[in-house]
Write a structure and sequence with these properties.
It contains ten helices and ten strands. It has 272 residues and is α/β, with parallel strands linked by helices.
Length: 272
């Protein structure tokens, strides 16, 4: 088995990953792609890069597994607390104010690039805590990693994974068991996990809030703009978008408005 992808092989995988997902690999993160392709060859006992490339281009499930393997899944509960402070203190009050005018009582949130579920469960716990009747909520959690989605669907997290959860939330929404914590079924039932490639239209509409944090950094500018425009189409006329603290829409031709709150910066869709 070759130690490294040749320049030609790297270019083949780089292009197909970009075409299939929008994820960009460059010379700076080439070593990540190198190591993950080599690992896949070992797992599948395939002795050449060429044979593996043929496999993924002729088998859709193998393509999904490859895309799963090359993605990075770093997350935790209540990651970047100022975003959730803004969500609680600014976004949700404004969403409910808009809903009073329409009679709609369901708050719809999408956690795009949800990884192993910590973000959507954080959102669900917050909404369960702060919303009062007649308001209800749904959280859609999507990712390109099937392995990560399976972890999220199980709702079990090791002891070291629940760090950062406020003690009252941990007591109220989790059950301690051997080696970790199980999130309660009533919270799990509010979160719908779904495989979704951000390169495609999600089919969702009238969303009140979209979280897509630390995902756009893996895309080039063209792919970023396409994703952002699809978010716009999926969102309600008065709605809010959270992206990663190191990400920005500045310089990008989008219709979103930059919004600075007392807690964090985010973006809003405001169509009169």
């Amino acid at each position: 088995m070759p130690d490294l992808l040749t320049d030609t092989e790297f270019e083949l995988f780089r292009k197909i990953i970009y075409n299939e997902s929008g994820i960009t690999f460059s010379s700076t993160n080439r070593s990540i792609l190198d190591s993950r392709i080599k690992e896949l060859l070992r797992e599948k006992k395939i002795d050449s890069v060429e044979k593996y490339y043929t496999l993924i281009t002729t088998n859709k499930e193998e393509m999904k597994l490859m895309l799963d393997s090359v993605t990075t899944n770093l997350t935790r509960f209540f990651r970047n607390q100022p975003h959730f402070d803004a969500f609680i203190n600014y976004v949700i009050p404004h969403v409910l104010e808009a809903k009073k005018k329409t009679g709609d009582t369901t708050v719809r949130v999408w956690s795009a690039g949800c990884s192993t579920g910590e973000e959507p469960y954080t959102i669900a716990m917050i909404l369960r805590t702060i919303l009062r009747p007649p308001y209800t909520f749904t959280v859609t959690a999507s990712d390109i990693s099937l392995k990560s989605l399976m972890v999220g669907q199980q709702g079990f997290y090791a002891d070291n994974r629940v760090e950062g959860i406020p003690s009252d939330y941990l007591t109220k929404y989790f059950t301690k068991s051997t080696g970790g914590y199980q999130i309660h079924k009533d919270i799990m039932d509010t979160v719908h996990f779904d495989y979704h490639n951000l390169k495609n239209d999600s089919g969702m509409r009238n969303l009140d809030v979209v979280f897509c944090r630390n995902v756009l950094i893996y895309f080039d500018e063209a792919a970023q703009l396409a994703v952002i425009n699809r978010f716009w189409d999926a969102m309600a006329s008065h709605s809010y978008l959270f992206i990663g603290h190191s990400e920005s829409l500045f310089g990008m031709k989008t219709q979103f408005q930059f919004l600075k709150t007392d807690w964090a910066c985010l973006y809003q869709k405001n169509v009169n």
